[in-house]
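FAQ

Q: What does a record look like?
A: Structure on top, sequence underneath. For example:
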């Protein structure tokens, strides 16, 4: 679907690395993540947590602004104007949260509610890990073979 609805952006030749974006991105995200960590440990009204979250959010806004104005951005923010792309990103994020979140919650359930040992819990999780490995490997190889040369069409009715 994305191939059909996403507009074609021109390919740029002889591009230079976006130094400002390359410096801002790895600074903004870890600060935000550490701010969430401190907030969950020491409380959300803790001055350090509030400072880190504010600083990280400001740096993220600066990163987005810089990327929007840069000639060769690391992240092409124009694609987020396309509603289908935004919806796809949100759906992919929810899918990843569900799949990988289960890898956290299932062991907690098995150990705390069902009273399984760590070894039993680990053995119960092996099939999911093996299936993920096989699925990602096969999916990656299929994508390498097929690329994006085909168009996915949705059928309704």
């Amino acid at each position: 679907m994305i191939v059909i609805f996403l507009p074609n952006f021109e390919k740029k030749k002889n591009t230079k690395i976006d130094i400002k974006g390359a410096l801002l991105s790895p600074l903004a995200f870890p600060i935000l993540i550490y701010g969430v960590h401190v907030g969950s440990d020491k409380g959300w009204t803790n001055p350090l947590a509030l400072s880190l979250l504010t600083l990280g959010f400001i740096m993220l806004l600066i990163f987005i602004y810089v990327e929007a104005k840069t000639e060769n951005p690391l992240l092409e923010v124009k694609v987020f104007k396309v509603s289908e792309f935004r919806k796809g990103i949100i759906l992919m994020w929810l899918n990843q949260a569900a799949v990988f979140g289960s890898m956290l919650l299932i062991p907690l359930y098995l150990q705390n509610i069902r009273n399984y040992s760590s070894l039993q819990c680990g053995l119960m999780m092996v099939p999911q890990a093996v299936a993920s490995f096989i699925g990602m490997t096969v999916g990656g190889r299929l994508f390498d073979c097929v690329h994006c040369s085909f168009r996915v069409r949705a059928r309704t009715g």
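Q: Is there anything notable about this one?
A: The two ends are 17 Å apart (CA to CA).
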